[in-house]
Structures are given as structure tokens and as C-alpha cells.
Design a protein that fits this description.
With about 170 residues, the chain is mainly beta. The chain contains two helices and 13 strands; from the N terminus they run ββββββαβαββββββ.
Length: about 170
Amino acid sequence: MDEMICVGVLGGAFGVNGEVRLKSYTADPEAIADYAPLTSEDGSRSFDLQITRPLKGGFAARLSDVRTKEEADALKGLQLFAPRDRLPDLPDDEYYYTDLIGLTVLDTGGAEIGKVKAVLNHGASDLLELIVPGASSTVLLPFTRAVVPTVDLASGRIIADPPEGLLE
């Protein structure tokens, strides 16, 4: 199976006629429909998708084979995936989140800071959630060019210059 990339998530029913709430993770949010059919993570379900209208924080959409509110509600939280080869190639300074997870993060002196556990975005900008050796909780590192000047996917590492006090 081709490598799958998560391109969106369903938020349950919108209305009573089987429409769903959809949050798109694609750079152009409406382009998510261009990558259909989309599948569940395990590949057991596949959906054609048609965006019907914009909503705050996403879209209302129709999925193939979903006709009732109950069917739409049953899909709440389902992540939608597309094969990587169906997605556009990215410029050198852009990355799919999945490519960053697991990379080793080093400071500018070469000392290991941690590993990327997740990439988060709560509206303002992306954050790298790091597992830091010896720490009981994770650390959030701003994913900006100033803080993360180098991402080297080929060698599996990120060079970071964390803000003072972040790792204390």
C-alpha cells in the first residue's frame, strides 16, 4: 500500500441529510476534494467527497454512501487519508507533518534536545511537540525559521535554536 498522508478529519453530522463537518489539513483547504477517494487509516473505508459549503473552521461535505445524520455522526473523529503520490510535491521549505515525526532535534551546538512526537497547530503557527530525554513532560518548540533553521529529512534531524528558558 502506498504511504498514506492524513489530509483531514470528520467532525460528525452537519444537518439531518447526511452531510458531515470536515476539517481539512491541506495547504489549500478546498483542495482536499481533489485527492478523493479518501480512506480511513486502516483502508477499510473509502469515500468520494464533495464540499457543499464553508463553515467556521472547515466545511460541510457529502461523502459517498453517507445519507443519514446517524451515519454521519458515526464517523465523528475519523481521519481521512490520501496516498502520498496523489499529493503535490512541496517546495524545499515545506514539509508534511508525518515526515517530521520521529526526527531527532539537535541544538546549534550538536547536542540532542529530543525527538519530534507530533506537530501541532492551534491557529497561530506550527509547534513541534518534543520528547525530551529525562523530562517528565513534552516541550513545545515553535516551528519557525528563526527557531528551526534547518530540517534535514535525508539525515533524519532538525537543528533548532530554542528560545532561552524553554528547556529548563
